[in-house]
Amino acid sequence: MNLKPIVFIDTEIEPKSGKILDIGGIKGVGSSFHSNSMVDFAKFLYGSEYVCGHNIFNHDLKYIRNALIDAGLDDPNIIDTLFLSPLLFPAKPYHKLLKDDKLQTEDTNNPLNDSIKAKDLFFDEIAAFQQADASLRQIYYQLLRDQREFFSFFHFLGYQADHINLEKAIREKFHSQICADSDLAKIIVDYPIELAYCLALINADNRYSITPPWVLKNYPAVERIMFLLRSSPCLTGCAYCDQALDVHQGLKRFFGFDDYRTYAGEPLQKKAVQAAVDNKSLLAIFPTGGGKSITFQVPALMSGINTKGLTVIISPLQSLMKDQVDNLEKLNITDAVTINGYPGSPTDLEGC
Question: Which of these CATH numbers, 3.30.420.10, 3.40.1130.10, 3.40.50.1370, 1.20.210.10, describes 6-131?
Fold first, then answer.
């Protein structure tokens, strides 16, 4: 790939006044900048075709836009590594350099160091995109080529793809990974970025990959799209729903049982689990020891895998919480913790 003239930047801003305290920059060819002079910064930018930063759209841009304009740089020439990371590193969406939406660095508040890290991250992102299979690259391009957060990335790469039937391409690529009855056509039009993030996470095929909180904050529809793709059983059945949303397979997978209990010939356990998986409201009354825990643990564990989500179970008894978590751990199910008033109760939650 012929490297186009690009500069990587970062700024340190005084939060209350908005005053620029420091600016760091490094060009793709290696020359660097470290000063708070906007005049000198504009001169440093001159000759670059692209400017790249981490969270540059939501942070740096409003402070340095005039310098960018003076250098002939505007939105079509701006690349933000923040938005690319969850797409290209879904198994580890924060990447080795990221913590939430801030670059990790031992030398804090050093924009030059963070510019260098943004440069390294950007080229890692390019490598990840180029190593992705052709169908996935095409899907990402068709979804995101007109989106402000991604347009410049494709333009920098000079990447183009033939027009494809996007819905058909997604269904073929993600056959048996999403519901065949999901309304992809509408999602593609209304939520292209959210859909791209969901597909990246699904393609990672990593149980413990999650959507970063900043993505959920900026694109709250991601949760809904993932639900529609993976946790809304279709009436007719499909390759995905028949496997991932089958309550018998869920029971066998997590607890090793072949079937649910019956009471007076009625499969009450199964009915309760099925109602939960079908996203229905339900009230289940079982005697002590009757197997109530299964009725919420199986749907919770299934949902955790299907939607990369968290289920919160509120219990009135601390001893019962601990007993249930202990019993799950005996089955090597370590996706649940309890938070209660007992000494030593964890303060974080990694849930099923």
Answer: 3.30.420.10
